Structures are given as C-alpha cells and as structure tokens.
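Why does residue order matter? Because the sequence determines the fold. Keep that principle in mind as you read this record.
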Amino acid sequence: MARKDRTTVVCRILYYGCALSLWLLPAVLLWVWFCADLIAAQNGMIPVKAIPFPLLVSTKVGMVLITLLLLAPTYWGLFALRRFLKACCAEDYLGAQNSRLLKRFALGLMGTAILSPVCGAVLSVLLTMHNPPGQRMLAISLGSNQIILAGVGGLIFLLANLLKRASLIAEEHAQII
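Structure:
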C-alpha cells in the first residue's frame, strides 16, 4: 500500500511541475528575449561589436518566433506528458491511451533535439544580420545536450512500446478472468 501511495505522490508532483512549466516557460522566454540585449550588455561576454545594441524590435520578434519553433515539439510533448501523469494520478497506469501519450512526449523530446542546432544557427544569423559584411556570423552547434535529449527521447519511446505490450497483456488477462 505504501508503494502505491508513493507512486501517486510522485505522479502528482510531476503533474503539477509539468502544468507549471507549461505556464512559466513562455513567460520566462519572452522576458529573456525582450531583455536579451540588456542581459548581454551587462554580462560582457559578448563583444559589443558582435551584436548591435540595442536590438531592433524586429530582431527580438524574430528571436521569439524561432524560439517558439524550437519549443513547439517540447510543448506538444509536455501536454501529452501532463495527460499521461493525470491518468497515473488516477491510478490508471495501463490505460489504452497512456502508451500513445508517452510516445508523444518522447517524440517531442527528439524533435527538440533535432531542431535545436538548426534554430541556434538561425538565431546567430538573425542576431548579426544588421552587421556590416564580414561581421555577420553563423554559429552551428551540436552538443551533448542534444545527443542526450535524443537518447532519452528514444528510451522513453521504447518504454512506451513496452507499456503498450503490458496493457495488451493486462487486457487479455482481464478477458480470461
């Protein structure tokens, strides 16, 4: 009984964390992108000649749109994860839709991992677009974060397939009894 209660508590904590992130993530990103020039100027890590300060409103809007494109698969996955966790909070672990929801979350993680280097390159071009010729930049990065995110997404996808098999076996056993 205690194990079941712990599982429900963890599911509830994850559910509320997921729901909260769906609200906080866009608010924080909008604040960061609309204050990016001030943050970068105070940080001192980006040379003043690399990016023109203050950033134009059109550049800021472009950065927000590119970031939203990057976050679209993540958001799609987080909505599915929230529904999956809601079902788990109701102790419906082997529900018919749970494997599908978990697969959507996994695909969202993998989509974000794939889009991340592309969006980063577009952002670097967007930030230096108004620089004179010779000072425009293209930065392409592929790091361990993207590789790990794609790997975790693949692992969750595999677990979702196993959950589907388990739910089919449970359904078959319920029909026998």
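The chain has a mean pLDDT of 85.
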